[in-house]
Design a protein that fits this description.
Layout lengths: L3 E15 L5 E15 L3 E18 L2 E18 L4 E3 L3 E18 L3 E12 L3 E15 L2 E12 L3 H5 E12 L9 E10 L8 E13 L4 E25 L13 H6 L8 E27 L2 E14 L4 H8 L4 E12 L2 E10 L2 E4 L14 E4 L2 E11 L4 E8 L6 E2 L12 E2 L2 E8 L2
Parallel strand pairs: 11-14
Antiparallel strand pairs: 1-2, 2-3, 3-4, 4-6, 5-10, 6-7, 7-8, 8-9, 9-12, 10-11, 12-13, 13-14, 14-15, 15-16, 16-17, 17-20, 18-19, 20-21, 21-24, 22-23
Length: 436
């Protein structure tokens, strides 16, 4: 039985200072090492170095924030050929970005305009620019109305550009003149082919409108509506289908002994469907978010949020259905923060999500069309608890319980790498935090 092991370790440091000119600065650095090992499938180890510098300076009606961010990623990929192959076993990727943001108070305490710009240059992803702007109007001390616009890219990962993988298995129920039976079941293996130079960044841009009401010093609520347009989304382009046994020579799929031999499928009674990742999908995402904040007592706060959303991908393809069904429509959350005393804290987080449907990467049920099938992931409601004791201002101990309602559950099924679904189970943790 395949076994999946993961590990992650990180070290982070931050330093802040105030310059003589009034510029507030901070420098943060972190080093993370992680790895994943799936028996007889793939092994990967990764090291990530992050360095972020940020500065802030206020003058007149302007509050300006600027900074520099850099990331270096080194990875080693140990594939299990021919099921998983890569353009190279190791790679070093770098990404450097510059950003600036200005909050400009047009009318004191009434109208504020914000504008931000960021440019990132990444190895093999080129230069990408993102921008955002917002306008905040506060007609009264208890009312706020805002409009926001933003656009940003999602750069591609090495796995999307460099890795070829057996990404699915299904059984096609078909007819063939070369078999003496009217109907036969043919295994079909899907193989996703690397696209190192033809796959680029995904793009998103959209608008948000919101309103907040401060009903009292202790209670406020807001509503936010959004609509985003996504283009150049990841999709798969069909390349070809071929058989790996001479019996397929008389069928439309044909027989390709050279390709099958390269995949160690010599004479296997299967067909291979090759796909290549590209940027052919686009669509819309829209929804409404509600939230409320209630300070019940000076030492007890309740926070509520609820989101309803809808994803609509252009067209009626299998890829469009797959993306739409994989997005849950409803999500809700209730947080309670109770400071029992200066040294004791008790937090509660009740949350839930509606169900979703994810494509079956492996489907052994014969199908006359070969179309994709889905597995339903039910919605859930669960609870997290946290009790903390502060020994002094620098040292804190905590007891944390996670996913304490509903027992073990599956929240996600891989629709790309055919791995076993991981169940989320109730867990208890003991932690400590030391500031120095």
């Amino acid at each position: 039985m395949p076994r999946q092991e993961l590990h992650s370790e990180s070290l982070m440091g931050r330093y802040r200072w105030l310059g003589d000119s009034g510029v507030e600065s901070s420098l943060q650095a972190s080093l993370t090492r992680s790895g994943i090992d799936i028996t007889n499938f793939v092994h990967e180890s990764r090291s990530i170095l992050d360095i972020d510098y940020q500065a802030r300076y206020a003058y007149g009606r302007h509050d300006i924030l600027w900074g520099l961010a850099h990331r270096t990623t080194r990875d080693h990929f140990g594939p299990n050929e021919p099921y998983v192959t890569g353009e190279s076993a190791s790679a070093t990727l770098q990404k450097t970005g510059l950003y600036v943001h200005d909050d400009w108070m047009l009318v004191p305490e009434k109208l504020k305009f914000s504008l931000g710009l960021r440019a990132d240059k990444a190895t093999r992803n080129g230069t990408n620019v993102s921008a955002n702007s917002s306008l905040l109007w506060t007609p009264t001390r208890s009312d706020s109305i805002w409009a926001k616009y933003g656009q940003a890219p999602r750069t591609s990962s090495r796995g999307e550009r460099d890795i070829s993988i057996f990404s699915g298995y299904s059984v096609l129920q078909t007819r063939s003149p070369i078999f003496p039976f009217p109907v036969i079941n043919v295994p079909v293996v899907a193989r996703s082919i690397a696209n190192p130079n033809g796959y680029g960044s995904e793009q998103a841009k959209g608008l948000e409108l919101g309103y907040r009401k401060q009903f009292s010093n202790a209670f406020s609520a807001d509503i936010n509506a959004y609509r985003y347009r996504y283009t150049d989304l990841r999709s798969s382009r069909y390349l070809r289908t071929y058989g790996c046994n001479a019996l397929f020579a008389l069928t439309p799929a044909g027989y390709n002994p050279a390709a099958c031999s390269a995949l160690s499928l010599d004479t296997a009674p299967v067909m291979v469907a090759e796909l290549q990742i590209d940027n052919a999908l686009s669509g819309w995402s829209q929804g409404i978010e509600l939230s409320a904040d209630w300070l019940v007592m000076p030492n007890w706060r309740l926070q509520f949020s609820y989101t309803v959303s809808r994803l609509k991908i252009d067209g009626n393809s299998d890829a469009a259905r797959m993306n739409e069904l994989a997005a849950p429509r409803h999500y809700g959350s209730l947080r309670s923060q109770w400071n029992i005393s200066p040294d004791h804290q008790f937090d509660l987080w009740l949350r839930g999500s509606s169900g979703l449907d994810l494509r079956n990467g492996i489907d052994k049920v014969p199908s006359p069309t070969g179309g994709i099938t889905f597995s339903h992931v039910p919605g859930y409601v669960t609870l997290d608890l946290r009790y903390a004791y502060r020994l002094n201002k620098d040292l804190e101990f905590s007891l944390i319980g996670r996913n304490l309602i509903g027992g073990s559950r599956v929240e996600y099924i891989s629709d790309y790498i055919p791995t076993a679904a991981t169940k989320v189970s109730p867990t208890w943790l003991v932690g400590t935090r030391w500031n120095f």
